[in-house]
Amino acid sequence: MYAIPFLDLPPLHSAQGTVRLPGSKSISNRVLLLAGLSAGTTIVHDLLDSDDTRVMLQALRTLGCGVEQRGAQWHVTGLGGRLAVHEAQLFLGNAGTAMRPLAAALALLTATQGGCFDLAGVSRMHERPIGDLVDALRQYGAQVEDLGQPGYPPLRVSGPAPGGLALERPIRVRGDVSSQFLTALLLSLPLVASERDLVIEVEGELISKPYVEITLNMLARFGVAVRREGYARFTVPRGSRYASPGEVHVEGDASSASYFVALGAIAATDGRRVRIEGVGLESIQGDIAFVDAARAMGAQVEGGPNWLEISRGVWPLRALELDCNAIPDAAMTLAVMGLYANGPTRLTHIASWRVKETDRLAAMASELRKVGAEVDEGPDWLEVRPPAAWRAASWHTYDDHRMAMCGSLAAFNPAAGAAPPVPMRIEDPGCVAKTFPDYFETFLGLVQADAADVPVIAVDGPSASGKGTLAARLAQALGYAQLDSGAIYRAAGVAAERAGVDLDDPRALAQLAASLDLRFEGERILLDGQDVTDAVRSEAAGLLASRVSAVPAVRQALHALQLGFRRPPGLVADGRDMGTVVFPDARLKVFLTASAEQRALRRHKQLISKGIPARIEDLRADLELRDARDRNRSAAPLQPAQDALSLDNSGLGIDESVELVLGWWAQRTPYRA
Ligand code: DC
After folding, report:
1. For ligand 1, is residue 549 a contact (CB within 6 Å)?
2. CB–CB of 457/586 below 8 Å?
3. Closest Cα to residue 472, out of 592, 330, 355?
């Protein structure tokens, strides 16, 4: 997950590959609640691991359910309809799928068994309405108190209800603000249905109907067969009891699939395909209907029961006018696809956007305008006209996972002929943790950009100047990859020594370098599949590297390997010739120096901390010898690029150096806030 303030995406032109989707949020939290209310243990496979499921799991634990992770499975042992704990405070983050049904279930449980529970969330949760559900529960005689603003969380539910619950009359609930109120009642009424049929009547037109289908489907799997008259009247039959199915598999999230369907439609060009696994045409999730909308816009979509394959069909995409009431979440993705359409795309019947994680109508309109689109917005509709001129935008995400994921799709302006192509900044990319913690890693694993568009920061300088540490910190701060080119030469040196190659034989060295099987896996360095991290980091390897790296043919042989690190979103490369030879077009070049004395001291400290004995004088002599060799060799000698900014960090701590360089970097970025 990118826990950084912003992630800059270069202009992207194409995409391909396979993604396995994380589990559906809606199914995950319904299954968890039902498992928590049932008797016995339910084994849940492919549960979504995200903020919203984490708060639900924590709430179940607090309520006394058994909750255990075993490998990829979760084992949930439920309450069997009996409260195990009678008082607790539950924190439910910003998870509507936890707040609403837990409020209903606990209101009914305390009404019949006594107890007192407070349910609260983050401040945005306290702005999301729940009054219609509270009103419905009060009709039964449940005691629900508003602890803050009436009609909004936090809430207190308590009991027993004086005189018991009045279950004879149908309970009425409004369906036109959020379908989750109805879902909450459907999920929890079986708790009190032992004596009589319980009837729910929906007032107003029910929105987001497919989510209610998921609810009914899940209830059926847990042994509760709800009878219904369309979407107006639902009956939980007398004697309903939750019965755990034993095991449940959670489908991939169809709303999350929408970003990759869109990705394929926009960017899987020239025989490329985006394949989605874990959700397909037989999904029980309403957002699978997004596939039809994407097809209407021109996407080429094939699919099976639990997979989809998408490629670009019509281009530009076909502008669309669509009633999105049934797919409110995935419809956001259509709004961004509208950037690439041949006319205005108009989405209607989306008033529910205003009461989601943020006011999504206002948010979407404002961010799409930043990239250059013309956007009109009404109380329950949005119209997007593609940009005449694209602009580099800083896409604000409003702590809304879907705003962040949608933003990534606006980076394909080269495909829409943007001249010049522009990068996109996604603010607070970590907010995708709500439903898809690895979204950006997954997205970036599928996309391609022109190398020239992928930003590089080059950090060159002599041995032990702190390049590696600075580069690692910059890469971390920006979410970029890091290339430690020294490690490549070190590994070449180690390989040469192991193979018994004469270090004075340039041809043999070049041959070895050309066939080097070197891989970087996180911090680990693998040579011929073997972990050589420690050997490569040793002083001896540094000396070997300084010799093999002086051979021009070796440098030539390792050139392409280094260029391969230049991938979206960007690269921080450190070494001797990053700014001069390998990435002469690097957007920022830093030449890092420190006095030989300082560098020897730092290296000494490093070695001693690892328990490796060393003498400062020896280290300094070694460093000076290597400096001289690196500087005086004919091939790519160590020297600052003409356009490099020098940084002598002898007197600076690492934090200060990082700040300074990030400040230089900020001056080179074009984003409009
Ligand atoms: O930065 P380092 O100590 O890991 O580098 C090891 C040797 O590799 C160094 O003496 C010079 C060589 N090198 C190089 O020639 N070009 C680079 N881009 C990086 C390192």
Report:
1. yes
2. yes
3. 592
Beta bridge partners of 321: 346
Give the SS3 label for residue 355.
helix
Listed residue (394, 459, 462, 424) closest to 662, CA to CA: 459
Confirm or reject: Cβ of 542 under 6 Å from ligand 1: yes
How many angstroms is it from 575 CA to the middle of ligand 1? 6
Tell how far the Cα of 466 is from the centroid of ligand 1, in angstroms. 13
What span, in angstroms and rounded, lies between the C-alpha atoms of 625 and 153? 68
Does any ligand 1 atom lie closer than 6 A to the CB of residue 285?
A: no
Phi, psi angle pair for 8, to nearest 5°: -95, 125
Residue nearest to atom 4 of ligand 1 (CA): 486
Distance CA 351, CA 347 (A): 10
Taking the C-alpha atoms of residue 90 and residue 113, their distance in angstroms, rounded to an integer, is 18
pLDDT tens for 94-130 read 999 999 999 999 999 999 999 999 999 999 999 999 9
Is the CB of 489 inside a 6 Å radius of any atom of ligand 1?
Answer: yes
C-alpha of residue 628 to centroid of ligand 1, in Å: 12
Rounded-to-integer distance, Cα 262 and Cα 491, Å: 41
Q: Locate tokens 């069909």: which residue?
A: 313
The verdict on whether 329 is a catalytic residue reads: yes
Q: Which residue ranges form the domains of the chain, and what is each CATH number?
A: 6-22+252-448 (3.65.10.10), 25-249 (3.65.10.10), 451-666 (3.40.50.300)
Of 51, 52, 132, 329, which one is the catalytic site residue? 329
Which of 438, 357, 339 is CA-nearest to residue 397? 357
**Is any ligand 1 atom within 6 A of the Cβ of residue 486?**
yes
Instruction: For ligand 1, pick from 456, 465, 470, 485 the residue to mutate: most ligand atoms within 8 Å of CB.
Output: 485
What's the pLDDT at 523? Answer: 84
Q: Answer whether 234's CB lies under 8 Å from 31's CB.
A: no
Mutate which of 465, 484, 489, 548 for ligand 1 pocket (most atoms within 8 A of beta carbon)? 489
Convert the pLDDT of each residue in 347-380 to its tens digit: 999 999 998 889 999 999 999 999 999 999 999 9
pTM, rounded to two decimals: 0.87
Question: Is 646 exposed, middle or buried, given 0-12, 13-18 or 19+ CB atoms closer than 10 A?
Answer: exposed
Contact present, 78 and 52 (Cβ < 8 Å): no
